[in-house]
Amino acid sequence: MKKKYWILIVIIVIAAAIGAWFLFGNKDAAAVQYRTAKVEMGDLRIVVTATGTLQADTTVQVGTQVSGIIDKILVDFNSIVRKGQVVALLDTTYLAAAVEDASSSMYRAQVQVNLTKRNYDRNKQLFDEKVIAQSDYDQSLSDYETAQGNARSAKSALTRAKINLKYATIVAPVSGVVISRNVDRGQTVAASFSTPTLFAIANDLTKMQVQASIDEADIGKIQVGQDVTFTVDAYPELSFTGTVRQIRLQPVVLQNVVNYTVIIDVPNPDLKLMPGMTANITVKIQETLGVLKIPASALKFWPAQETLDQALKEMPDSLKQIIDKMIKFRQRMNSQGGTRTAANAGGGGGQNGFGGSQGGSDRGGSQGRSQGQGNEGRHSNRGHMGLVWVKTAVNKLVPFRVKTGLSDGSFTAVEGNLKEGDEVVTGIINTQTTTTPQTQQSPFQPQRPGGGRGGR
C-alpha cells in the first residue's frame, strides 16, 4: 500500500513541476512580439488611375448627300488616301437623267423668254406710237419678266442636278487611313433624312488621343499639362506617355457615379497604338524623390499599456507631456462618440499638431480611383508631427517624433531623428492566443462601437 502512495505522490509532484514550468518558465516564450518594418530611402508618388479608349486625333466620317446604288468601291480597310482622291462611285443613271431633264426645262424656259421678249419689243414700239393701250403694253412687259424668272428657276434646277451628279463621286475630304468601310458594291444608300456613313478616315495615326473617364472625386487633381503614362493589353511590357490636353465640363453619369472625360494627347510615331485599344492610364499628381519613408501603419501604432508604462519611465519629461496630450486627445475624441478620426481633425493629433498621419477613406469611381486619396491625397497631413515606435535590439520600444510629408496611402515620408534601417513597429503579434497579427490602436483613432480597429 505504501508503495502505491509513494507512486501517487511522485506523479503529483511531477505534474506540479510541469504546471509550474508552463506557468512561470515559459514566460519568455510567450513574450510580446512586434511586427516591424525598416525605414527606407526611396520615392513617393501620388497618382490617379483610370481607363480610357484610344482614338485617332481627327477622324472624319465620309458620307453621301445623294441616294443611289454603290457602283464602285476604290478603297478598302487600311488604305492610305489623299485629300480629293476618289474612294467610291454611285450609279449615275438616274442622276444623269435628272440633269438631262433639267437641261430640257432650261431650254423651254429660254424659248419662252425669247418669245415674250419679241412681243414686248413690238408692243413697246406700238405703245410709243400710241397705237395700243397702256394695259396691253404692261401685260407684255409682265409676260417677259415672268419668263425671265422661270428661266432663272430652270437654270437653278439644272445647277442642282449637276451638283447631285457630282456628289455621286465620293472623294476623301482629308488625307489619312481608312479605318472603317460600311458599304459594299451594289448596296443602296438612302440620303433622304440623314447622311449615311460610307467610310471613316483617320487623319493622322501618328497623333492619337485617349479619352479617359475620371471620377468626380479625382477630377479636382487633374490639370492641363500633367504627364500621363499608360499601358495597353497588346504591349504589356511597354509604357507609353501622353499629356493632358483638355478636361471636358460635361458630366457623364455611369451607375450613379459622375465622371468627366479627360482628353490626353499621345504621340504614336511607331504606329503601335491602334484606335479602340483600352488604355490603363496613370496621371502623376505629385512626387517626392529620395526621402525617408515608413509604412503608414507605423504612425497608427500604439503600444500596450504595460509597455507604455515601462517606456514612460525612461522618457524625458518633454516627451512624457506630449504622450499625455495624445492620451487626453483620444479620450476627448471617444467622448464625442468616435465620429471624427484624428486625421479629419488635422492629422493624428488634431488641433494639438502632432500624431499619426493616416486617416480618411479612399473613394474611387467605376472607371478611375486615386492612389493615397484619403487625407494623404489631399495633403492635409503634410507638415504635422507624428510619433513612431522603434524596436531596439533588446526588444524594447523607443518613441521618436517625426514630421510627416507626402503619403501615397501605403508609405509616408518622414523627417526627424530616424535613420535608414531603423525598425519601426507597425503592429503586435500576440503569441499567447493566436499567430494572427494584432495592431494596438493609435490614440488618434477613436474606437468604433464594439471594439477598436486593428492596424493593417
Average pLDDT figure: 80
Put simply, the count of helices is 5
Helix content: 25-40%
Largest sheet: 6 strands, antiparallel, barrel
Give the class from helix and strand content and strand pairing: alpha+beta
Shape: elongated
Question: Could you tell me the number of beta strands?
Answer: 21
Uncertain spans:
338-380, 431-456
Secondary-structure element order, N to C: HEEEEEEHHEEEEEEEEEHHEEEEEE
Determine the N-to-C terminus distance: 63 Å
Spatial order of the strands in the main sheet? 2-11-14-13-12-15
Tell me the domain tally.
4
Assess the beta-strand content as a share of residues: 25-35%
Radius of gyration: 43 Å
In words, what does this structure look like?
The protein has 5 helices and 21 strands. It has 456 residues and is of the alpha+beta class. Helix 2 runs antiparallel to helix 3 (134-167).
Secondary structure layout plus pairing:
Elements: H1 2-25, E1 33-38, E2 40-56, E3 59-63, E4 68-73, E5 80-81, E6 86-90, H2 93-128, H3 134-167, E7 169-171, E8 176-181, E9 188-189, E10 197-202, E11 207-215, E12 227-232, E13 235-254, E14 257-267, E15 278-295, H4 305-313, H5 317-335, E16 369-370, E17 385-391, E18 397-407, E19 411-416, E20 423-429, E21 437-438
Antiparallel strand pairs: 1-20, 2-11, 2-15, 2-16, 3-10, 4-6, 4-9, 5-8, 6-7, 8-10, 11-14, 12-13, 12-15, 13-14, 15-19, 17-18, 18-19, 20-21
Helix pairs in contact: 2-3
